């Protein structure tokens, strides 16, 4: 088995998207992979969908209490693949993606973790997660913040590497679990690469109003603060930049430009990240 794709899902309203993902995997030109679906729902609707005969790939179905990192760790514990990946339940894998990624990793066997591009499902444009990363390069630890999102990493499986269950959706600090997971690779291995030659498709959820964005920042900012406290000295320059320079700079710019929305956004960054840092 070459790839274990660990799909942690919560909320039966996402069934339509899960169907699209599973169909994209079923259409893959590469077949040496398994899908490990970790269902955090009490209902069995997704289980019934998952085991429909039309899906010919290898399957494992598991149950988990709510918690993204907890669910992924359950999947990691049973994964059989040499490489692991973490598709979202609303992303889509292009038909040749797994073939392309596997070929790249075979040509570069020393790579421990590969991060790829993310693009909008509808427009094909680069998503904000990776828009600042261009080309192909060996990643440095501070590149994590412009190259990594959980849906776009393909990593060698190491039995001692797991997600911190204090981080991620459903946990006390509901974000940054993927940054933390990738940081484990940098602390222990360091051979991580990015390429925008390949990409995974995902809906663009960033085009929201200011109030929605501020609420999201408040929820997720505590996770960023927790992450930066956990790895403060390892990513010292990024910690100071993200915790201090970015939010305070944004507030100052908002004041001078008389932009209340900008002030609200960067104030939310400052306060939520500080709260997470202090309480972690």
UniProtKB/TrEMBL annotation:
Domain Glycosyltransferase 2-like: 15-146
InterPro entries for the chain: Glyco_trans_2-like, Glycosyltransf_2, Nucleotide-diphossugar_trans
Pfam family name, one: Glycos_transf_2
Key words of the record: Membrane, Transferase, Transmembrane, Transmembrane helix
GO molecular function, one term: transferase activity
Record-annotated membrane-spanning stretches: 232-256
Name of protein: Glycosyltransferase family 2 protein
Organism, scientific name: Costertonia aggregata
Lineage: Bacteria, Pseudomonadati, Bacteroidota, Flavobacteriia, Flavobacteriales
